[in-house]
Amino acid sequence: MLTRRSAIRLGALGGAGLLLSGGRAAAGTAPAVTPPAPFTVPLSVPPVLRPVRRTLTSDVYALTMKEADVEILPGVTTRVRGYGGLFPGPTIRARADRTTVVTHTNGLTVPASVHLHGGHTPSADDGQPMDMVMPGGRRTYTYPNQQVASTLWYHDHAHHTEAESVFLGLAGTYLLSDAWEDCLRLPSGDQDVVLMLRDVKLDEQGGIAFSMLDGSAERDILLVNGRPQPYMKVSGRKYRLRLLNSSNGRHYLLGLDNGDALTQIASDGGLLPAPVPATTVALSPGERVDVVVDFARYAEGTRLVLTNTDPEAVDRTRDVLRFDVGAPEPDDSLLPDRLRPLPALGAATVTRDVVLDFDPVSGDPTIDGKVYDPDRVDTQVAFGADEIWRVYNKDVTFRHNFHVHGVHFRVLDRDGTPVSGHEAGWKDTVAIPNGSTVRLQARFDRHTGRYLYHCHMLEHSSMGMMAQYEVLS
Ligand SMILES: [Cu+2]
Asked: Ligand 1: distance of its center to the CA of 301 in Å?
């Protein structure tokens, strides 16, 4: 008898197992709805949400979560769950010196909880799994934005249903800017572009097919901002591309098909000290990296493909997006040699071990052998403490990753080897490959109260690979 708990393990295994056996035929019936050829659909960019009110100190927004019919594949209608009925949700632009207030109305038939991923948000407004907005209900979240400029995102976190709700569309970006970043004169306006990457599986009618059983092999339609493998027209000038892995479970290894480097400028929690070129950039679910690409280096008419060479990528999921380079344009944006220094790490006073694994008997996804219990505090942290967490993925087969709410951390090393590129900057989510250990260090000096730490592969977290820490005053 296949239990719901063992199903998730098999589902994850399904993806890996199919790859190992070298075929996708067993993945299920071929979809009757076929995606278009790559690069035949133009990229669309989520609209920026307009505030309903501005005060001296705050920007006030209102959004209704609702089902809507959208066109993901050309000519095919797909029912989604969207913030404002949009797929993905609208982009919220916030300023580090102003408070953002968002009132969310739940127009769905399922409970919802809105989490600002990467936000240093007071516990009561963090959108915790059991702190749900019921259907027909309404909830106002206040974000103080007392943190540096960064690419954040908001998504559903209602316990047990977040994997399905995010898969059906409850995700959007939240771009926090500040005066320091303004001074750098990085590409902005139409040259500052959100690229939300994810996969999807559609059924015969074009509906989004969600199953806990599915892994990356089954979810084989790649979307950028809700469009299948789109093309993006760019001018011959610099662009800031905010790459966000909003997939439930897919990992990416991104690069350009001509082998040129992507220039990383920011990680989950803000700007890097200096630009870091890299030919490949890894992104596990929930992670962000901002890159700058100067298309002035390419002749008009050049076509460049953003590729995904992660080992789980097959056929349709290898090509993400094509940049079609147009005429050169005047460009007064800059890519400075120095961006924002990282502060020196404090002396850690506490070291903890965290173990991610499936329970060998029950198949439950666990942290330290335990399934999430909202009534249990797993870790107590003193306010202001500098702590090192050694996060071990005990699972020999499955990758996981690790997200901490409420703070940003720095990754000290992975299996003793220092990390590089965006992983060396401020992080809130980090990949933990099977069998490996990542050491991270955080200072818990933002807010007191209860927060989550969890695997951000949403089928895992929704089944309980989550735990709670409490910052004590
Ligand atoms: Cu996991």
From this structure: 42
CA distance 255 to 309: 8
Cα 6 to averaged position of ligand 1 atoms, centre (Å): 14
How much is the pLDDT for 213? 87
Q: What distance in Å separates the CA atoms of residue 26 and residue 275, rounded to the nearest whole number?
A: 43
**pLDDT tens, position by position, 249-272:** 999 999 999 999 999 999 999 999
Q: Which residues of 109-134 are buried (b: 16+ CB within 10 A; e: fewer)?
A: ebbbbbbbbbbbbbbebbbbbebbbe
List domains and CATH numbers for the chain.
Answer: 53-178 (2.60.40.420), 350-472 (2.60.40.420)
- pLDDT above 70 for 31: no
What is the reported pLDDT for 275?
Answer: 98
Residue 397: pLDDT band (50, 70, 90) is confident
Residue 249 Cα, ligand 1 centroid: separation in angstroms? 8
Q: How far is the CA of 46 from the centre of ligand 1 (A)?
A: 28
In the chain, the percentage of residues whose pLDDT exceeds 90 is 90
How many angstroms is it from 154 CA to the middle of ligand 1? 20
CA of 465 to the centre of ligand 1 (A): 7
Contacts of 75 (CB under 8 A, 6+ apart): none
Q: What is the Å distance from ligand 1's center to 291 Cα?
A: 26
CA of 355 to the centre of ligand 1 (A): 11
Ligand 1 midpoint to CA 2 (Å): 20
pLDDT digits (tens, 9 = 90+) for 267-295: 999 999 999 999 999 999 999 999 999 99
